[in-house]
Amino acid sequence: MEDTSPILSVEHLRKSFGPKKVLQDVTFTAAEGEFVCIVGPSGAGKTTLLRCLARLASADDGRVVLAGRPVERPPAEMAVVFQDYSRSLMPWMRVESNVELPLLRSRLTRGERAERVQQALIDVGLPDAGRLYPWQMSGGMQQRVAIARALAYRPSVLVMDEPFASVDAQTRADLEDLTLRLRDRLGVTIVLVTHDIDEAVYLSDKVIVLSGSPATVTAAIPVPLGSEREQVATKAQPEFLRLRAEIHGMIMRSNTASRSVA
Amino acid sequence: MEDTSPILSVEHLRKSFGPKKVLQDVTFTAAEGEFVCIVGPSGAGKTTLLRCLARLASADDGRVVLAGRPVERPPAEMAVVFQDYSRSLMPWMRVESNVELPLLRSRLTRGERAERVQQALIDVGLPDAGRLYPWQMSGGMQQRVAIARALAYRPSVLVMDEPFASVDAQTRADLEDLTLRLRDRLGVTIVLVTHDIDEAVYLSDKVIVLSGSPATVTAAIPVPLGSEREQVATKAQPEFLRLRAEIHGMIMRSNTASRSVA
Amino acid sequence: VAIGAAVLTGCGSSADASGSPAETVAVSVGVTPIANAATVYLAEELGYFADENLDVTPTIIQAAAAAIPSLQNDELQFALVSAVPTITAASKGLPIRVVASNDRYNPDPEAVDGAALVASATSGVTSPSELAGATIAVVGLKSAPELALRLALRGAGVDPESVEVVEIPYPDMVSALTSDRVDAAIVADPFLSQAKAAGLPVVSQPFLDALHGEAGTTWVASERFLQAHPDAGQAFVRAITKAVAYAAANPDAVRDIMGSYTEISPEARAAAVLPYFDSTIDGEDLQFFADALVTEEFIDSAYDASGLLWTLDR
Amino acid sequence: MSAVQAEERPPGALAAGALRLALPRTLPKLAFVAAAVAAWQLWAGAGNLGAVPTPVEVTVALVGIVADGSVWSPLGVTLSAWAISFVIASAMGLVVGFVLGASRLAYRLSVFVLDFCRTIPALGLVPLVVLMFGARMQSTIVLAVFGAVWAVLLQTIYGVRDVDPVARDAFRSSLARRRDVVIRLVLPSAAPYIATGLRLAAAVCLLLTLSAQIVIPSPGIGQQIVLTQLGGAIPKMYAYIVLSGVVGVAINAAFVALERIVLHWHPAHRKAIR
Amino acid sequence: MMKRRAADFGMGLILPLLLIALWWVTSTAADSFYFPPLPHVLDVFADLWVFDLVPVHVFPSLAAIGLGLGISIVLGVALGVLLGLSRFVSDMVSPVLQFLRYLPAVALLPLAIQLIGIGLEMRVLIIVLGAIWPILLNTMDGVRGIHPAVGDVARSTRLDGPTWIFRIVLPAASPQIFTGIRASLAVAVVLMVASELLGSSRGMGYFILESQRQFSIPEMWSGMILLGIIGYLLNVIFGRVEHHVLAWHRLSRS
Ligand SMILES: Nc1ncnc2c1ncn2[C@@H]1O[C@H](COP(=O)(O)OP(=O)(O)OP(=O)(O)O)[C@@H](O)[C@H]1O
Ligand SMILES: Nc1ncnc2c1ncn2[C@@H]1O[C@H](COP(=O)(O)OP(=O)(O)OP(=O)(O)O)[C@@H](O)[C@H]1O
Ligand SMILES: [Mg+2]
Ligand SMILES: [Mg+2]
């Protein structure tokens, strides 16, 4: 997949908050249907990078090119799952309305929308939650609703910020496989931030390792594990273990370089 | 440690939200200095359980006994780290004030408080973040501030709800070891909710497995890995691997029993 | 409510230093800043109050409704109020008394008045008899202008019930007339000259038509004050009587002194029609209004005004 | 900056940058004020506004009362009556609002009376107030307080109830003293509401101070409006009216500036938007 | 649920009953012209308001308040959203807006009389000119205070304008908007009274002020009591609406 021309390319992004440099010359690409995971220390600038990618913040310099056109506004073919899921759900809307939100702009009929919403809720394991309000749900359930919102939209680029951080191991594995199938079935390009290196290797075609303060791309590591992945078998492959150790080492080095934890 | 008399005992807790039963007869104990991890599917009722434990919510039935006395109000010797960390930090306070919050009631001088705050921030790897506001930080940094607040307080019981969900692998390992050292050094009793089974086994003296809807204790599994743990060596022990597989199996069974993920 | 009652029953007083004529008595006097109030300023300037050992402070009041409570709580000792609200208040049982008259409506119905009924340009009204069904603005409802209007309408053969009387402040009357929001209005100086300048037709002079020779503004005080300080009351009446006579005789002095307490320009003062100053008053003057108020349904039941006047010998 | 149009400003050059940033901020304001005044001049000049004089006439009158010094005493009285009533109304509203917002019992006990009293028009109380306090500053203050206290009270009640439950839990579990809960949790969470309440109360206080000074009348700008009105000095009357508007704008500007500082953490005022 | 409602209601009655008792006793004891005995006031109240004068004085006032408040809500919320969303516009118009806001109503009367006369329209205008501010300010502040995360969601889901306004901005600001409306309710009543001062011969405000000017003090008190009752009822109706609309807010914060 590495040789297809990139559908998404991030070029020399730079961004500061006041005097604090957060992104420094971040560059990477994603080919169509590619699964890219971004890993890096906490506070490195991953969320900031995603926000620039989705044009929710503007970079000080550099640009994002999507399907050949520079991104000037939040692009229609992109869906975003936010790290702060509890705040990304509207407390005055029931779960079904929250999930339906991005569909309102589409040409779907009411019935089609309801169907898509229900399907997305089934996909994330919440088939009966449609009539609840977000604040009636547990943290993990809220996070899954946020994922369902992105799934229901069926974007061509899916950007997710630590989407599985608060769900249990089993659900997490299910959601990982769901995401992989989604990519296979619909050819969605996925950019996902995670702190779980196993998850990053298991899911990706390419892992981008960010170093912190200010963030630069330390390495873009291709993951040649084939397109068929399976929770137990894949994670037992020697290649998987090698990659995992390699990335772990990288993060540890960039981590200790930039700060110290007692 | 199993034979010491329990400092904390949760007895027959029961709680519903309207018609929905969430906790059904939850019972477990923690001995002084014991590290108890709670695992269970998303939406099972772990957060609800912790809130009852800390008396932030009242159970419909049953009681919590701490050091021999039934808990009637949020107990002074307990500190809580919330799952929804971003909302548990006050946006109008700088990080240092947020961390200082529980110390205000203590008899410490201003200088001692500042020192404790700084030490806690160093412990969580944020030595320079004191003057920032929470909304100027990344998600993982906010989560660590929330942890720092609990650490600075030096409680005798520490209750944590998925405290390491949003931090990178390296920081997570560091924080895990920090928590273990804390327990060893100060004899703190720790109740921690996590979705990471490796983490649960690595940290605990006992793992409580909750089943969902409504939550009951499926099993309370002692973890006889000794009190010395080490990220690489401990996780390579056969006993570790066995426990991990056992718990995984349990959760998967209770999971698939209660709901289906596509 | 409880506080109010306490203040009422324990009313302190600021004015009564003593009743003895040898000592100076401080009194506050409520006046509206119009030409009629010139007497009190003249009395002050000419030393009539000082002669009577009175230390008088004029205080601006807006309307009788606000001044009369001030008499009750001793914040004011005297107020210059037109006969209509005075009798209305007295008829409701408020313990107030009229001590002296300040002026009358000009006894000559053909004289030029400082207030007139002015019609809007497009109404085509030229006489009061054409006003049936009209909307007419006055400066205050259930006050002297409305009474004069109703009496004048009756005199012209129009049923007052058929017109709608509305309240509009003087400065806004001209614009209400020119924009046809009302059909007519009772406008007073200095706005009357503005209305004339704007070409609005003067229909009649309702005060002189209906009330010529009747009592205009009167000096009132609270019964309690007069009982406690009869000497001060008499001293005030003597001083103000002299001032009224002086004002009647010296119109230029009146025009001059108006500059000290009003915002009226010198030109307007020079052109102003002055009140007909007259200090005489008797029970019949008051009874006239009492009866008129009943017939015009300003008050519900007949009122005997004979006891209202506080005379020197009582 | 609005949530939708959140756009971080580039760091920009320092001093020159600040000037360049300040100018575009004030320029539209000035332009809009100028346009409004021009519209007034054209309209009133053409005689379409009835008794309302043109801004030129009003300015001349305003300069007149400033030049002869007659403006200062009424202005001073009005401002002090405003300030006193505002302080009293805010203090009362805050304290009572806190109690009623925090205690369901207190709220239930008093809600009838509050809802009843709230709709009693302040101006209807004029005769009673005059009876009790006379035509003095006290009366205007009482009326202004009576009218303005509700804004602060209501906003405080709502604000106190709007504390984020997770934040409240965090406080409860850290066993904060009641004082700390009030000062560090409830007050800041309610602060955006209270700020709005205070701004409203400031306006209501000024309006009621002026209205009371007109209706009673008691000394101050309001009484000057009555005097000039009765004397037919209409441009002067409008000069005083414009003056009260200008005082209002100044008061409001002070509040906005203060709010920017006190509520800097609030999403509405954050410098760097996430 | 029902029981709790009844208990609330009962508790709410304690203080009013106490105050009424206090009023009864003190006013009967104190022989004051301005504070007539409560029994007398109540007699007058029964005479006047059950129900002779209701159509004459109550209906016109309610019409003015209803219209005035309705227009204030629509305009206040619309302008508040506009100003809340656009710093540029709100910065630009704020001096003029604040100036207008601080003008005493008397100053606007000539203009109002000139432009729309002295009828119901003028009263409605006066009410709107005063009652719009609490709503506008609260809406503006509510909109500005929307959490940035909500804005992020809206932009990334590319909501169209109406959806963004009606489904996100308004609900998010609704707690603030409702406090504003509640404050406006009181202002509207005050201004109803003030507006009936001029060019009117009907309405509650007219009745109270006229009674006062006519020194019909028991009548004035009876009018104030009626106004209080009407105000209370308006509040109750409004409270029901709010309870319903803001259910999510109340429950999510409990
Ligand atoms: N305020 C509420 N009203 C109604 N139901 C609620 C409320 N809060 C929680 N619940 C329900 O209680 C159940 C348990 O929630 P809880 O937050 O305790 O789960 P959890 O085990 O912490 O899950 P997670 O791992 O996802 O955080 C959920 O099914 C949730 O829907
Ligand atoms: N509004 C802001 N003002 C100032 N600094 C900010 C702001 N938002 C983020 N930062 C800083 O930018 C840096 C990057 O933040 P970001 O949220 O992108 O990190 P991240 O990689 O997503 O971390 P995490 O894994 O913990 O979520 C952090 O050091 C943070 O302090
Ligand atoms: Mg992040
Ligand atoms: Mg939870």
UniProtKB/TrEMBL annotation, chains A, B:
Keywords: ATP-binding, Nucleotide-binding, Transport. Pfam families: ABC_tran (PF00005). Residues 8-237 form the ABC transporter domain. InterPro entries: AAA+_ATPase, ABC_transporter-like_ATP-bd, ABC_transporter-like_CS, ABC_transporter_ATP-bind, P-loop_NTPase. GO terms for molecular function: ATP binding; ATP hydrolysis activity. SUPFAM superfamilies: P-loop containing nucleoside triphosphate hydrolases. Transmembrane segments: none annotated. Signal peptide: none annotated. PANTHER family: ALIPHATIC SULFONATES IMPORT ATP-BINDING PROTEIN SSUB (PTHR42788:SF13), TAURINE IMPORT ATP-BINDING PROTEIN-RELATED (PTHR42788). This is ABC transporter.
Automatic annotation (TrEMBL), chain D:
Pfam families: BPD_transp_1 (PF00528). The chain crosses the membrane at residues 30-51, 71-100, 112-135, 141-160, 181-210, 237-258. Belongs to the binding-protein-dependent transport system permease family. This is Nitrate ABC transporter permease. It comes from the Bacteria. PANTHER family: ALIPHATIC SULFONATES TRANSPORT PERMEASE PROTEIN SSUC-RELATED, ALKANE SULFONATE ABC TRANSPORTER-RELATED, MEMBRANE SUBUNIT. One of its GO terms (cellular component) is plasma membrane. It is found in: Cell membrane. GO terms for biological process: transmembrane transport. Gene3D superfamilies: MetI-like. InterPro entries: MetI-like, MetI-like_sf. SUPFAM superfamilies: MetI-like. Its main location: membrane. Residues 75-259 form the ABC transmembrane type-1 domain.
Automatic annotation (TrEMBL), chain E:
The chain crosses the membrane at residues 58-85, 106-133, 177-199, 220-238. It is a multi-pass membrane protein. One of its GO terms (biological process) is transmembrane transport. Pfam families: BPD_transp_1 (PF00528). Residues 58-238 form the ABC transmembrane type-1 domain. It comes from the Bacteria. SUPFAM superfamilies: MetI-like. This is Nitrate ABC transporter permease. The lineage of its organism: Bacteria, Bacillati, Actinomycetota, Actinomycetes, Micrococcales. The gene is ssuC.
